[in-house]
Amino acid sequence: MILKYPMVLLLLIPVIGLFAYFRTVKITHAIRFPKGAWLAPLASKRGARLLRLTTILECAVLILCVLALAQPQWVKAKRYSTKAGIDIVAMLDTSGSMNAEDFKPKNRMEVAKETLNQFIKKRKDDRVGLIIFGNDALTKAPLTYDHGILTHHIRQTTVGDAGEGTAIGLAIATGLNRLKGAKAVSKIMILITDGVNNSGQIDPISAATLAKEKGIKIYTIGIGTKEGAPIPIYHPTYGKTYARYPNGQLQMTEFDDTVLKSIAEMTNGKYFNATNTNELNNVYNEINDLEKTIIQTTKEWVVFDWFPAIIGLILCLIVIKEVIVLTRLVGVRT
After folding, report:
1. pLDDT 10s digits, 296-333
2. What are the residue boundaries of the structural domains of the chain, listed by start?
3. What CATH fold (topology level) applies to the domain 86-292?
């Protein structure tokens, strides 16, 4: 316990001196009665004790008043941990080639969505946003702690939602706009694509240069192999078939990791290539290990002020004293 104004306790010196003085002074009571000796049998030891009690109560009230003015406080240090999260923007390619079925028994899009959801679940203290891109780049979810809504949007995403092309530069620029004004210490983007940049008016390297200037890291994930895979299409009449060139040759997915490696290297990120579900899971696990949430320990002082309690006690003592005087000591002291 501490006192906010300890010097106020000096007032106790005159208070104690005052009570010491009155204890040495004898108070004489004058009454009109023929012979005072006749009152001897009326002497009450109980009344004398109650009279002393009222004196003690008066003394206690004055002492408590001085103590209340000093404002005693109970102070306790409380430590707690806060987590400075990371702002993450995931950019998911939804071009037609994401239908490729080399991630059997599922296609690239289904595997990419499942593994991205698992990654987001591990980032409980981070804000995460979602951008899908094809010919265009669309913000499906801004930076949010509500990972449930992110999971919903990821599940609802399908191939072709943003067009059939691949605008990597536009996706990065949109991600930078989402991170603009974010106050997190660490900001990262995760680019998930299986193709080459063939759409959009923004060059991927130029967009990556801007990300570097803003201190934003980009992790690039190339899905698929350089050899490529057939691209299934779904015809309303003929059902499932595979994309072909006009000459009838089977069309294969294109994959160029040169740009993806450059983007990651420029922004101090890292490039990954995943050719199956297990590898893609391992990629997200590695990113999760690289981007640790910062834990900060903070001390907070919890203060409880005893002033209201002391005032309440003073009022109670005054009431008790007055009750004794008005009910038990009538006529004992004048």
Report:
1. 656 666 778 888 888 898 899 888 888 887 776 655 44
2. 2-77+302-327, 86-292
3. Rossmann fold (3.40.50)
Residue with tokens 């706009």: 177
Range 107-130 average pLDDT: 91
pTM of this prediction exceeds 0.90: no
Tokens of 123: 């980032």
Q: Encode the chain in three state secondary structure.
A: CEECCHHHHHHHHHHHHHHHHHHHCCCCCCCCCCCHHHHHHHCCHHHHHHHHHHHHHHHHHHHHHHHHHHCEEEEEEEEEEEEECCEEEEEEECCHHHHCCCCCCCCHHHHHHHHHHHHHHHCCCCEEEEEEECCCEEEEEEEECCHHHHHHHHHHCCCCCCCCCCCHHHHHHHHHHHHCCCCCCCEEEEEEECCCCCCCCCCHHHHHHHHHHCCCEEEEEEECCCCCCECEEEECCCEEEECECCCCCECECCCCHHHHHHHHHHCCCCEEEECCHHHHHHHHHHHHHHCCCEEEEEEEEEEEECHHHHHHHHHHHHHHHHHHHHHCCCCCCC
74, burial (CB in 10 Å: exposed 0-12, middle 13-18, buried 19+): exposed
Within 8 A by CB and 6+ apart from 33, the residues are 39
3-state secondary structure 232-269: EEEECCCEEEECECCCCCECECCCCHHHHHHHHHHCCC
Whole-Å CA distances, 20 to 13, 15, 122: 11, 9, 72
